[in-house]
Amino acid sequence: MPRFIIERNFAEKLEVDDEAKKHIKSINDEEGIEWIFSFLSADKRKTYCLYEAPDEDSLRRAAERLNIPADVITPVDRIDPGIFA
After folding, report:
1. Is the pLDDT of residue 37 over 80?
2. Number of domains forming the structure of the chain
3. Which InterPro entries match (predicted)?
4. What's the predicted TM-score (pTM) here?
């Protein structure tokens, strides 16, 4: 499945409780996407999230349904350090 990085900018600090996590998972499942992991900036206002998804549209639909930004979506390929050994 294709992988994407989503850059998100939040107006306020990001805080996600257990209920929000369940809601995110539910919407992602319905859209056929999987949240792999995220990096959170030190000020908690920006995230870089790695997803597996069929396409950008499914990621945008999920973000819209969750009322969260998806400012930049970039298709990516995986590269491991071992390829340089």
Report:
1. yes
2. 1
3. SCO4226 (IPR042557), SCO4226-like (IPR025336)
4. 0.86
